[in-house]
Write a structure and sequence with these properties.
- This protein has 100 residues and is mainly alpha-helical.
- It has a domain of 68 residues.
- Helix content is 72%, strand content 0%.
- It contains 3 helices and no strands.
- The radius of gyration is 33 Å and the shape is rod-shaped.
- The termini are far apart.
- The mean pLDDT is 83.
Amino acid sequence: MRRVFWVAVGAAAGIYAVRKVQKTLHAYSPSGLAGRAGGIGDSLQGFADEVRAGMAAREAELRAALGIDDAPGLSPVDAADLIDNPARPRRTPGKSRSST
């Protein structure tokens, strides 16, 4: 009876070892590596999309808090001037110059 028990234990251990080796070999085969790489790419894309959505939401919150949602955008000429001469004093859009 003991021998039958140990034969069964040995067979189970052998089957387990063979399955584990096959699983490991498949994981490092070209198709297994490609599957894992594809999964990583998808998860990185999802993460980037979530970050972009969070950035847009936070920017909207900041714009609302600072009251610049209603402000008109810069024209291309004004934007180029701002890039070329960032320290030059400017008048606020929508406000007229007053002499004081």
